[in-house]
Amino acid sequence: MRRGSIVQLILLSVLIAIGVTLVALLIPWLPPSAGEERDRIDFVFWFTTGISIFVFSFVASLSIYAVVKFRARPDDDTDGPPIHGNTGLEVFWTAIPTTLVTAIAIVSAIVLQQNSSAGTNPLRVSVVAQQFAWSFAYLNGEAEGVTSPVLRLPEGRKVELQITSKDVIHSFWVPEFGQKQDAVPGAVNKLVITPTKLTGKKPFAVICTELCGLGHALMRSEAIVMRPGDFDRWARQQRVSA
Fold first, then answer.
1. pTM, entire model
2. Residues 183, 127: contact at Cβ < 8 Å?
3. pLDDT tens for residues 47-101?
4. 201 by DSSP, 3-state: which?
5. In what order do the strands lie in the sheet with 204-208?
6. In sequence order, what are the beta bridge partners of 170?
7. Strand runs labelled E in 131-219
8. Any alpha helices (H) in 140-204, and if so which ranges?
9. Which of 143, 170, 173, 234 lies in disulfide reach of 183, CB 3.0 to 4.6 Å?
10. What does the domain layout of the chain look like in residue ranges?
């Protein structure tokens, strides 16, 4: 391939990459983040998106260049010249995707390991799902023994949710925390979250994302992230009331 053609391909790839990047960045695809684990997940998302933009721009530029430069005329029914394999090119287009996919796998594995670590002293909360409501029971700390229909959490502390179900399969999800976990009867599935933002006037929604019956769409609760001092005061008030 001539140098001029290579320059044209590079310029076309850059233009396509810029356009796709603007679409990726200017449109708010994701809800706001309110957890350390969600930040890590978002990093994997954008890391993978960047690789996808690179590959798409390269493939799209080659396709456009081929259509423009090598388009046959309507009355041209002749066969093109015979083309033989190119070992170097085949090695290149096999090695590059392999490297990119391996990078995605390594980054994903690191984030998965980090997000599953609850540390030495997390706040443990039992999350019980049933048609069509959520219940949250605090197993340790200042709120030990407290049960609430609303999930209240202290800002900045690791929380281990122990999720189960009384009847059918449900699924726990708070979009701002970025993770989902199934609630399965007879099993306890763990989910670690570390809230980093106070909820303010509008609590985060706790949503069931597994079709669980006629009331599935209404199976919602709230997650409220509080300052540690406010959480302790709330916990003491709940224990006194109980």
1. 0.84
2. yes
3. 999 999 999 998 999 899 888 888 877 877 777 777 777 788 888 889 999 999 9
4. coil
5. 151-154, 220-226, 204-208, 170-174, 179-183
6. 183
7. 133-138, 147-148, 151-154, 159-165, 170-174, 179-183, 189-193, 204-208
8. none
9. 170
10. 3-70+89-115, 123-241
